[in-house]
Amino acid sequence: MLNWGDTLNLSPAEPKMSPSPSHHAPLLILFAALALGGCATVPTQATPDPRDPLERLNRSTYAFNDGLDRAIVKPLARGYRKVTPQFVQTGVSNFFSNAEYPVTLANNLLQGKFTAAASDTARFVLNTTFGLGGLLDPATASGLDRNDEDFGQTLGRWGVPPGPYIVVPFVGPYTLRDGIGSFADDFTEPRAYLEDDSTRWTLWAADKFDRRVRLLDADALLERTGDPYAFVRSAYLQRREYLVRDGDVPLEDDTLLEDLEDLEDLEDLEDPEDPTDDAGSSEISPR
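Predicted structure:
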């Protein structure tokens, strides 16, 4: 979610952008099938959320994704974690984080965050060179913090409302704004310019799998909730709002502040800091 150097073949003259509409045809077909094939039941005690007008359809898609995860993805993630040394897992996570960092660079500029853009450029160059293509993270050890920006956040900063909440088959939650932003972000990733379709999609799937591995510890928190779908929805929407505001949450927004306490727990599980891992290198840290 692997050696980038062996597969990276940039072709600026004839870029093959990813994804194209034809690549997403299977997802769109499945999404339509879910809409026509039956909708999940909304809990009777649940209060309708105006941000989620497609809740019945979204719950069906969530149930499909959850079933796929339990049957295939989660067991594979557990097996990978069990047999793979921690320093290798960390290196893989570092690699994908670095490979996606041009997304942050571009959106820093679009939001007028020029100081952050300069810092992130230095971080990307340092990790790509001295960090062996991003496997190591000497930038963090050098005091260059990691930022997190994307075009969904940029649109939010420009005043574009989030739009309806949508659960996408195989992928997970988005808002309409963030879904559009995700497509735009694909054009700033080096992976989008790989000529070989199978390599490009293999890297995409590997990146998603790596993220699933890092979220394994969050499963226990999710299973303790009475309505996992509602919890994921709330966590996603609150986290996205927090990112758009750069953490500048009004004090009167009590619900947001309370939910962010749980989100910080999830974030710690997804991006654990491990400055002294088994490899003995303080330069290796996830993200």
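Summary: Residues 18 and 198 are 11 Å apart (CA to CA).
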